[in-house]
């Protein structure tokens, strides 16, 4: 062996391994624009949620300060940039605090449905049998339910329709969980069924590995490829359901938490009388939050697929010729132990051009 | 003779995530009317890219340089494919140049009849009545050797066999009478006996239709059988171009020599097998066999109410300690099923199969698991037989961890390094991920994993058929050395008689689930008794144009005798 062939393969740098950072570096053109726009919106949303008490000029349930009450339906001014609502709240503060409520719903919905859906999907996909068939039927039935109807039922069950912060969050999150478990279940199940037939799983079986070892070590980590996309879609859906709940009147009380949907509901009569600010800003917040999440999800999906990923065009016939698997001469003559420089030193990265299958 | 296509200084680059990659570099080739030019090379040598450029079929990530001048059948019109618009490209495809794809079952649309698909090509190029198109489709199907073309024209692709499907694909390419056909590995997906028929058809296409053919292949036997002239490609360049007799008789370039030397010939292994047989101690044959099958039957269950598929039907075979049994057969002959049954991956449904003393018919997984440490398995595709998320060292350590010989992958590292050295991989490769290794390196790592526990029996299911020919030679050589060193018994499954012959002590030939012939390499390959074995042997093209012409004649006589 030559000394050069013994140097270990270069480790991929951290910035190339982190999913979103890696995608960002990889993207070009319109796809990059979409991803950057989505990331900016998403960052804005998260910053608002985390630092709401610092960013917002007033509390979400505050109707006045030392100088007296704010007054109702005041147009945007220096004190109240986005104006005030019919209830006398500051619109800007409620829009910022609304992000906090929205992100709670997203976390509850995603975490619960992820764990349950993935676990059931792995089990059903790997072991099959009657339990698998039963789960597929049940989840198909649940999938047919409108999520808003479920959310209303849940909100009545959880808090009798009188929503507190957690009542509202759990109602919206819970209905999303119920509706989205089937999605995670189906995706993970389909991937598991596919991976189960891959030779590397069979080879683990031939080696005598136990089922739990195969499922967790070999199947699970390979089945999670599509999860980021579903998580983003799922998050957007969660925000929309919370907003819809608020809009139809099952929202969170204004004293308990800020809820964009509730504010939109209360702004309905304002629109006809020319008061535009009470409806515009919460509405915009919903649109931008959902849009940001969707853009990130959509770009990640495109970038993960080499066929959809756009690349910079290369100059005329540029680049190095890729190494093929053979070195001219001496292929057989190299003999036992003497294959220094035969196949060493070259490596095929995941996009190397091995044409033959 | 005039040229049909003239490639001048062609260069093609692709933009990939790793930057620009040049696939073809300054290639100049020309094909004359009625000539078969074979482009030979291993994966990544740029042969497919060169051929696709002739049809303007490159993906959007490619940039090209140079010229590909294509003339029509009559030689009245010349056009440079590279500078043509998409509209003009559509015109020349089919009329001036057509393509035959590798996999006939995916090249045909399953929801239309083959007649419809042939007529589709006719309708795309000019006005033609339905009746006339149908008549033409029937005519062309008859000419490529489909029996009863009037009836078959209304059949769907799934009603044809693999070889017949490839005939239909060739008919589709011929129907507009192009001057040139580009055939990309036209026989790679087919069995040897079917391959011989398709090669005959392509030869007829050249002689009767006067069509020039660009044949892309990695199989030197196919080249010797069909080509008039050969261009050898290596790393995007043409390293040698010569007519077929000159190339095989006196190769000039080092790479061509290496490529030819790596092709396994039938008959190379018989001497070695005889030597090994002579060395065996007396009483060896009386030892308890590692594997013993008596009337083995494996039936795959059918769908509701349908009868199951009998993959293996009454097979008797024996593998004694330290012996390599080569199992040969075409696709669907049941050879892989037998290998999987011995490894406990497929249920035995009838007869008896004893593996390491345990009866496999009706065995429970829990009882068989301890035995698994004494069996190794090497899979066909090295790319997919490793978990892509684990490093090579972790993959090779798996058997050690599972059977409690090591606590985790890190503590098994010393043994893993020894194993990697045994298969002649540098230790540092243990830290790489499977996709960072080439096909041959991966298959060597796969051997290391199979040998980790020092098995008494190694099942190798087509371990080299996904590899290039020179890499295959290395892996086979290594397999032979390891077998000598470790002394395991082995079931070596392959569709390639020449490969099996290199390694096996005895060869068993399977045909449609039945064992038709069994014996030493010298018996089975030297004087086969069974007509199927005879045909299989005669169908195998040898990489020597002169000898191949004789064999072709021999095969024709065999077919006529049937």
Overview of the molecule:
The complex is a heterodimer of chains A (357) and B (562). Chain A is an all-alpha fold. Chain A has a domain of 234 residues: Orthogonal Bundle (MetI-like fold), CATH 1.10.3720.10. Chain A is built from 15 helices and three strands. A two-stranded antiparallel ribbon of chain A has the order 1-2. In chain A, a hairpin with a 2-residue loop joins strand 1 and strand 2. The two termini of chain A are 30 Å apart. The N terminus and C terminus of chain A are likely disordered. With 562 residues, chain B is of the alpha/beta class. Among the domains of chain B are: 77 residues, no CATH class; 218 residues, Rossmann fold (3-Layer(aba) Sandwich), CATH 3.40.50.300. Chain B is built from 22 helices and 20 strands. A six-stranded mixed sheet of chain B has the order 6-7-8-3-9-10, sandwiched between helices. In chain B, a hairpin with a 2-residue loop joins strand 1 and strand 2. In chain B, helix 8 packs across helix 21 and helix 16 packs across helix 17. The longest helix of chain B has 18 residues. Chain B is globular. The relative contact order of chain B is 0.10. The model of chain B has no long low-confidence stretch (mean pLDDT 86). Classes of the chains: A mainly alpha (357), B alpha/beta (562).
Q: What is the element string of chain A, with H for helices and E for strands?
A: HHHHHEEHHHHHHHHHHE
Strand composition percent of chain B: 15-25%
Biggest interface and its residues per chain?
A: A-B, 66 and 85 residues
Name given to the CATH architecture of one domain in chain A: Orthogonal Bundle
Helix/sheet category of chain B: alpha/beta
Helix/strand/pairing class of chain A, anyone?
Answer: mainly alpha
Strand content of chain A: under 5%
| CATH fold-type name of one domain in chain B | Rossmann fold
Number of helical stretches of at least 4 residues of chain A: 15
Overall helicity of chain B: 25-40%
**CATH H-level homologous superfamily name of one domain in chain A:** MetI-like
The largest β sheet of chain B comes out as: 6 strands, mixed
């Amino acid at each position: 062996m030559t000394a050069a062939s013994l140097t270990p393969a270069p480790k991929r740098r951290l910035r190339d391994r982190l999913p979103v950072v890696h995608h960002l570096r990889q993207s070009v053109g319109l796809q990059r624009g979409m991803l950057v726009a989505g990331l900016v919106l998403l960052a804005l949303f998260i910053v608002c949620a985390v630092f709401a008490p610092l960013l917002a000029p007033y509390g979400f349930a505050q109707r006045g300060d030392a100088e007296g009450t704010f007054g109702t339906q005041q147009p945007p001014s220096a004190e109240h940039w986005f104006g005030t609502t019919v209830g006398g709240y500051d619109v800007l503060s409620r829009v910022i605090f609304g992000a906090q409520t929205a992100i709670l719903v997203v976390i509850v919905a995603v975490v619960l449905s992820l764990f349950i859906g993935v676990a059931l999907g792995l089990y059903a996909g790997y072991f099959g049998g009657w339990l698998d068939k039963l789960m597929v039927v049940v989840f198909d039935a649940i999938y047919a339910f409108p999520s808003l109807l479920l959310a209303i039922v849940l909100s009545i069950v959880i808090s009798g329709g009188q929503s507190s912060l957690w009542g509202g969050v759990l109602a919206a999150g819970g209905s999303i969980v119920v509706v989205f478990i089937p999605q995670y279940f189906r995706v993970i199940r389909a991937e598991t069924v596919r991976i189960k037939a891959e030779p590397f799983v069979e080879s683990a079986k031939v080696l005598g590995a136990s089922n739990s070892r195969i499922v967790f070590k070999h199947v699970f980590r390979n089945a999670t490829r599509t999860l980021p996309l579903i998580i983003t879609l799922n998050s957007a859906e969660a925000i929309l359901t919370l907003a819809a709940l608020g809009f139809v009147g099952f929202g969170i009380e204004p004293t308990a938490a800020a809820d964009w949907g509730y504010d939109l509901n209360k702004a309905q009569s304002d629109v006809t009388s020319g008061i535009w600010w009470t409806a515009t800003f919460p509405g915009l917040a919903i649109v931008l939050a959902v849009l940001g999440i969707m853009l990130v999800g959509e770009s990640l999906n495109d970038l993960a697929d080499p066929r959809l990923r756009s690349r910079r065009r290369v100059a005329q016939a540029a680049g190095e010729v890729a190494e093929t698997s053979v070195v001219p001469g001496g292929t057989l003559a190299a003999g036992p132990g003497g294959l220094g420089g035969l196949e060493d030193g070259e490596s095929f990265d995941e996009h190397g051009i091995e044409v033959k299958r | 003779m005039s040229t049909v296509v003239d490639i001048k200084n062609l260069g093609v680059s692709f933009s990939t995530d790793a930057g620009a990659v040049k696939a073809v570099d300054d290639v100049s080739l020309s094909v004359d009317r009625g000539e078969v030019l074979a482009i030979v090379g291993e994966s990544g040598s740029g042969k497919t890219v060169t051929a696709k450029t002739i049809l303007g079929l490159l993906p959007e990530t490619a940039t090209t340089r140079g010229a590909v001048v294509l003339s029509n059948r009559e030689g009245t019109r010349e056009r440079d494919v590279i500078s043509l618009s998409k509209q003009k490209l559509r015109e020349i495809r089919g009329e001036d140049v057509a393509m035959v794809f590798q996999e006939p079952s995916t090249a045909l649309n399953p929801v239309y009849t083959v007649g419809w698909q042939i007529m589709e090509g006719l309708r795309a190029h000019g006005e033609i009545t339905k009746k006339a198109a149908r008549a033409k489709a029937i005519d062309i199907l008859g000419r490529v050797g489909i029996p009863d073309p009037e009836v078959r024209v209304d059949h769907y692709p799934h009603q044809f066999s693999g070889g017949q499907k490839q005939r239909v694909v060739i008919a589709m390419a011929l129907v507009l009478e192009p001057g040139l056909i580009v055939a990309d590995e036209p026989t790679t997906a087919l069995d040897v006996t079917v391959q011989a028929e398709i090669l005959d058809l392509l030869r007829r296409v050249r002689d009767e239709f006067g069509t020039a053919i660009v044949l892309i292949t990695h199989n030197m036997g196919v080249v010797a059988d069909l080509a008039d002239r050969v261009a050898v490609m290596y790393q995007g360049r043409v390293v040698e171009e010569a007519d077929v007799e000159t190339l095989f008789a006196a190769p000039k370039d080092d790479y061509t020599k290496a490529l030819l030397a790596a092709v396994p010939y039938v008959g190379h292994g018989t001497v070695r097998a005889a030597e090994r047989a002579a060395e065996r101690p007396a009483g060896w044959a009386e030892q308890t066999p590692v594997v013993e099958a008596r009337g083995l039957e494996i039936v795959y269950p059918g769908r509701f109410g349908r009868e199951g598929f009998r993959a293996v039907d009454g097979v008797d075979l024996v593998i004694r300690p330290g012996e390599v049994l080569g199992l040969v057969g075409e696709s669907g002959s049941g050879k892989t099923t037998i290998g999987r049954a011995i490894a406990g991956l497929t249920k035995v449904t009838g007869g008896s199969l004893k593996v390491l003393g345990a009866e496999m018919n009706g065995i429970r997984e829990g009882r068989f698991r301890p035995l698994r440490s004494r069996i190794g398995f090497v899979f066909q595709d090295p790319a997919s037989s490793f978990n892509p998320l684990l490093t090579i060292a972790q993959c090779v350590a798996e058997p050690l961890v599972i059977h409690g010989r090591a606590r985790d992958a890190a503590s098994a590292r010393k043994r893993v390094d020894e194993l990697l050295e045994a298969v002649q991989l540098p230790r540092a490769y243990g830290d790489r991920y499977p996709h960072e290794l080439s096909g041959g390196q991966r298959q060597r790592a796969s051997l290391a994993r199979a040998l980790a526990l020092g098995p008494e029996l190694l099942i190798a299911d087509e371990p080299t058929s996904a590899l290039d020919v020179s890499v295959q030679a290395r892996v086979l050589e290594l397999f032979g050395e390891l077998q000598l060193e470790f002394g395991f018994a082995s079931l070596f499954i392959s569709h390639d008689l020449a490969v099996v012959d290199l390694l096996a002590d005895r060869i068993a030939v399977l045909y449609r689930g039945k064992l038709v012939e069994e014996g030493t390499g010298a018996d089975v390959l030297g004087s086969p008794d069974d007509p199927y074995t005879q045909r299989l042997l005669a169908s195998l093209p040898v990489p020597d144009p002169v000898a191949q012409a004789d064999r072709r004649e021999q095969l024709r006589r065999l077919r006529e005798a049937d």
